[in-house]
Amino acid sequence: MVSVSVVIATLKPRDEIEAIQCLEQQAFDDFEVIVCDESPVTRARNEGIRRASSDKIVFLDDDSRVRPGYLRKANEVLETEAAYAGRTVHPADDVFARHFTGHYDWGDDACYVRHFWGCNMGVHRDVFRTVGGWDEQMGWGHEEKELARRVSSKFDILYDPELIVDHPYASSITEYWRKQYKLETKSPYYWSKCNISRADQLKNISCEAFDPLNYIRITPTATVVEAGSTVAKTAGRLRGFLSHPQQEADRGEVPEIDRPSQSADPSE
C-alpha cells in the first residue's frame, strides 16, 4: 500500500492534467493518483476516497501545481493530524492576487483553522468514517465549506504554510463573476443545512445586496470587480433560493465512507 493517495476530480484525460505533471516531479514517490470523472465533483471525490489504497488522502484540482516537497510534507502531517489546509497561491500579479485571495493564506505560521479548499487539502480516512463523505447534492459550490463545518466539529484542521500549491483563482474578471454566480446558487442549500430559515436566508440576501460596502474597494479596478461580483452573487443566491423552495426539508444525507484501516487513528 502506498503512503499517500491523491484524488483529482476532473473530466480531462489523464495525460492533460497539470497536477499530475507536477506530482511526477516530486522527490517523494510513495503515492498514487486517482482520477475520477463522475459528476458532480463531490461524487467523484467520494469515489476517489473509496478507491484510495492509503488512509492519507490528498485532494487537488486538475490545475493545482504543487511545490517541491509537497507530498513528503503531506505524508508527515497526516501521520498526526486529522486534516490539513495548505497555502494556496494565485500565480499572477493581478487584481485577484492583490485584493481577492486573502482567504487562501493564513500567514507564515502553522495554526488551526475551520476551512480548507479542494485545490489544496488533505484528510485522513478515519475523519470520513466519523463525519461522512462529501455531500453529493451540493456539487461545486460551498462543498468544501460544508465538509469543513462537519470536520471541524469533531477534529482539528491544521493550516500548514509549507504545503504550497499554485492554483489560478480566476483568469479574467468575467470568469470570476461567472464563478461567483455559480458558487452562490448553492448558498441557500448550505444555509438550510446550517438550520437557517427561509425567512432569514432572504434577509441575508437582501442585506448583502443593499450594503454599499459590498460595491467598493480601494482601487477603481478592484471596485469594478467587487461591484460586479456582488451583483453576480445576489443573482446566484436568488436563483438558488427560488429553485429549491423545499430546501429546509431536503438537506441531503452524506454518504458513509468505510474501509478497514491499517494505520493509526489521527489525533483529535
From TrEMBL:
The keyword Ion transport does not apply. Residues 239-268 are annotated as: Disordered. One of its GO terms (molecular function) is transferase activity. InterPro entries: Glyco_trans_2-like (IPR001173), Glycosyltransf_2 (IPR050834), Nucleotide-diphossugar_trans (IPR029044). Keywords: Transferase. Gene3D superfamilies: Spore Coat Polysaccharide Biosynthesis Protein SpsA, Chain A (3.90.550.10). Residues 247-259 have a biased composition (Basic and acidic residues). Pfam families: Glycos_transf_2. Coiled coil: none annotated. Residues 21-129 form the Glycosyltransferase 2-like domain. This is Family 2 glycosyl transferase.
